[in-house]
Every structure is written in C-alpha cells, then in structure tokens.
Design a protein that fits this description.
The structure is a homodimer.
Chain A lengths: L12 H5 L4 H19 L4 E6 L4 E2 L6 E5 L4 H12 L3 E7 L21 E5 L5 E5 L1 H19 L3 E6 L2 H15 L6 E5 L6 E2 L18 E7 L4 H8 L4 E8 L2 H15 L3 E6 L6 E6 L2 E6 L6 H21 L2
Parallel strand pairs in A: 1-4, 1-8, 4-7, 8-11, 11-12
Antiparallel strand pairs in A: 2-3, 5-6, 9-10, 12-13, 13-14
Chain lengths: 318, 318
C-alpha cells in the first residue's frame, strides 16, 4: 500500500469559508500535551468521536438541525478501549453521554435515588450510597479513578458540526506522528447538511402570520477522504454508518469504503443498533450480535485486533 | 372577566392530522392520580414545561430540528415552586435537566468527582462523598427526598413537538377542574415550525452526489389561544418569550399577550437570560435582574404572588 506523506492541508471551501472556532485554539495545548504523554508511554491511542453534531440556523442560535445520538456507543466504547490499554481522546457533543458517568446519566433512575441520608453519629446526617447500589457504584468509580490516575482519557467537547470538523482535523493532525499506532473511531453522528455562515440569519428567525420556513441546506464536505489522504494517512480509520433500511446497510458501508479508501466501516440499523453491528472491510463482512450485555464488549476487542494487524502491516511496508 | 365554560376541544388540523402519541395514554393515569392527590391536600398546582421540542424530519428519526434549551429555567423553577408549597407536574424534554439532579448533570464537573473510595474497615473499599461536597449534596438530597415523600413532583417526559402539544392538552384538561388554583408556567422552547406526517420521509433521507436538502416547514399551530379558551380557561397562564434582539423583546411580549389573552409573559434575551427577565402583563412591566445566585429565587415568588392575586380575582368574579 502506498503511503502518503503528511502534506499540508489543501485549501477547501469548508475550512476557508468557515472561521476556525475558538474551541480549536483553546483545546489545542491540552490535546498536544496529552498526546506527548502517551507517546512517551508507548501506548496505542484512539480518538473516539461521539454524539450528534448541530447545524445552527441562526448565528445567535435558537434553532438548529441535529442528528439523533445520545452518545452511548462512543461513551461505552471509550471505556472498553481504556480497559484494553488504549489512551482515549473522547471528542463528544456537549451534554452527550460520557464514559463512566454514563452509567448514571440519561437514566430512568435519577442518581440521587442511589443515595440516602443516615445518622452521622454526631447528631447530624451524612450522605451515603445505598447498600444495594454500592458494588456497582464502586466498580464504576474505581475504573474512573484509574483512568484519571493513569491519564488515559482526555475529554474534549464540541457543539456544532463546524466545531466538530475543525477539532477533528486538529486532533487527527496532532495524532499523525503516532503513525499506525493511532486509531480513529468515528462514532459521532455527523450531519450531512449544513447552512453556510453567509446564509445564516444573525438573529432568531421570526415566525409570524402562519408563514412557512423554507431551509435550503448545503452538503457537508466529505471529510473522510481528507482524513485518509492528508490529516492522518497512516492511522487506521473506522467510520460508522447508521441506516434505517436493512437493504441499504451493506451497500452503503461498501460505498463508503470505496469512496474514502479507509479500513473499516461499522454498519448498524437504528432500531437494532444495541444488539447488532456489521464490520465491513474490503475483503470481509462480519456480524456481531448480542442478546444481552454490552455489544461494545465484543466490538471493541475486534476493532483492536484489526488495528494491531493494520499496524503490523503498515510497519512492515515501510 | 368573562369565564369560558370548559367545552370540548374543537376539531383542529393539528390534533386531527397528527395521531395522538402513545405517551399520552401511558402518562394519563399517573397524571390523573397525581392531580387527585393534590386536590385532596388543597395544594396549589403548577405545570412547568421545560426543554426544547424536536421536529423529526423522518419517521424513523435520524435527523431533526430542535430548539436550544438545556432546561435550566424549568428545572430550577420547579424546585422553587415546590419550596413554596406547590405541587409540580414537570413536563420536560427527555434528557433535559431535572429538578435536584440538575445540580450534578450537564456540569463541567463529573459527579463522580464528588466521590471517593475509602477503607471500609473490613479489608474492602466503600464509596463516600468527599467532605468538601458533603454539605451541598446533603442539602440537595434532603429536598429531593422531601419532594418524593410529600409526593409534590410528577416528572413527565416528551421528545417531539407533537408529543409536547398532546401532553400539554391532556395535562391542562386534567388540571382544569382545579380552576384558578392551577398555574401553567410554559418554559419549554416550543418549535414554531414542524413537518406534518404526510411530508415526512419514512426512512433516513439519503445524501448523495453533493445534493442539497430543501426543507419546507409548516407553522406549528398557536396552542396558547386554545389553552386560554378551551383547555384550562380559569388557570393562570404564564408563557416565555426568548429573543436575541433587545428591540424586539417587549413588543413581542406585548403581541403575545394581545394575541392569546393570557396573564403573563416572561421575556428574556438569549445572552442575558440567566441574569435578567422582564415580566409583562396587560398593565405593567417589571424587570428582574440578579448579579449572582439564581434568578428563579426572585422570579418564582413574584409569579406566585401574581397567581395568588389571579386566584382571588377569579374567585370573587364567580
């Protein structure tokens, strides 16, 4: 396989038409320092992207277009990567689920229900975890604390699709020196359409007199090709494909592989995404199905196995 | 003031064109029973709506239109109403902030950071709340437990604007027998536009070949008029108006009061919403401003004061 040198990013409409968001400059030092630490430890590293990306309809944003995603796949996968010795940059949509705390947020049970007040032996009360939840809480907390101690997780957040794309480019370029030890696991639900800044209303779009609202959205540039060719050409790249029609799933996964020339597409159907996914590569297709437990418990080790093979192949081709 | 009898809901396009969502039938028994309990206790009651309302673009929803709202105003106000002796039905967008747990979610600090593992004295570890966070955690937990014990909070969730409108109608009609003891505090950010079911794609809208996406959205019916005239005609109704342009704020609040004939509009500007609001009534305008602390600490007692005056006025006019 031919390797592309890391070349400077060619000018494109999206990255020139849109102003680089402040968040890129704010996060960059933390990202750079996190990566340097991991390189020193010879850890494999994965960028996990997670959650939906919003498309604001106004500059002072009241309304926006969004993509369905609570961020479960990403948050859960991040924990499994860490458990398997990876350092994780978790690039997630603000307020979507986070590794570890996900066990207690977006839940039908409020986490306050896991607590009680008991006599502190000095005439007062103290907060305690109810006995029946203690074990699970302790196990989550242990993993969370270990990830912090070992500095194996960096959480970076975005809101809009523009922020997402700029941060993705920045992180991928920062990770490029890791070569094939870098894995990009792109589980975020990225909008296919956006409203360019020059078409965006400055203020809240007014509704009056029963008027309709007509939105004319432009396609979001296909960034995967750039990732493969320019931003992190030696990294293994895994993208996700969510469909609602079964007949389209495998053809769409194959089409993505063909268009972008990356290594793996994980396909899933909206209503069965928690129980089955398909791993589509150039020369193979493999379903993973679970009836209970977390699908990521099987999926992440499978992806890691493929990343190892990719790294061996890339190193032997140098 | 003329009182409208509770009359049956007139046929309207929205409520006949859209199928009543399952959630209405699922929630109805809990809502009815909660209201009956409060009536027996002679408690004043408020419906607090909170969070954004989504407009799905597909029936198998991958993409949707949304309104900016984390649900802070609603969740915070609900706590203040309960503290002031009200029973609260909290109708909120799924995963938006909830009363009490809001202190620990959507936060820059993960709530797991408030905990630690300590020796349990028997060779193991147990989970404890860190001393520096104990007092605040205990105070939130106390209030949460009291609200549960006194059965003063019912949490109902919705996702789409259609679910929101059907649930609002159902809850308002269930509350109508409370007469002027009922308060409707409509803090949810309701979409002004929606896509009727017959215009909605069944499956995920496909993006290919760099095609644009043109959306033609219809106005959401102005439900406030129905609330005032038909659903809960004796209840005091408070609506919110969020604008991004200062010059539009008061005129838009006045226009809403005039159009719908309800009692109070609370206006706020997107970038100053945490620090100032304006209470606009037929014959008065009053700004509330805070430099620190929660604005709802002043706002909610002000609204309650007006609700009391409204109830006296309504009772004396019978």
């Amino acid at each position: 396989m031919a390797l592309h040198d890391r070349i400077s990013d060619p000018p494109t409409d999206f990255f020139t038409d849109n102003k680089s968001p402040d968040s890129v400059h704010i996060w960059n030092p933390q990202i750079t320092s996190f990566i340097a630490t991991q390189v020193a430890k010879h850890r494999p590293m994965v960028l996990v992207t997670s959650g939906g990306t919003i498309v604001p309809l106004e500059k002072n944003t009241v309304r926006f277009l969004d993509n369905f995603s609570a961020g479960t796949r990403g948050a859960c996968s991040a924990e499994h990567f860490i458990r398997n010795g990876y350092a994780v940059i978790f690039l997630h949509r603000q307020f979507s689920l986070l590794p570890y705390s996900r066990h207690y947020s977006h839940s039908t049970h409020c986490f306050l229900d896991f607590m009680d007040l008991e006599d502190d032996g000095a005439g007062g009360l103290r907060t305690v975890i109810l006995a029946q939840y203690e074990e699970e809480m302790r196990s989550v907390l242990k993993e969370y604390k270990r990830a912090k101690q070992e500095n194996s997780l960096l959480v970076v957040s975005f809101i809009t699709v523009t922020e997402y794309l700029f941060l993705l480019r920045d992180i991928a370029q920062c990770m490029a020196p890791l070569g094939s030890n870098a894995l990009l696991y792109l589980a975020a639900a990225v909008s296919d359409f956006h409203l360019p800044p020059d078409k965006m209303s400055l203020h809240k779009i007014q509704s009056h007199g029963g008027r309709r609202l007509v939105l004319d959205l432009e396609p979001v540039p296909k960034f995967l090709r750039k990732l493969v060719e320019h931003w992190a050409p030696q990294a293994m790249i895994v993208s996700f494909k969510l469909e609602t029609e079964e007949r389209l799933l495998i053809p769409k996964c194959r089409a993505a592989l063909k268009s972008y020339g990356h290594q793996l597409v994980i396909g899933n159907l909206l209503d069965r995404r928690k129980y089955e996914v398909i791993l589509v590569q150039q020369d193979s297709e493999r379903w993973i199905r679970v009836s209970d437990g977390e699908l990521e418990d099987i999926l992440v080790p499978e992806v890691i196995e493929r990343h190892k093979r990719w790294a061996v192949k890339m190193k032997s081709s140098i």
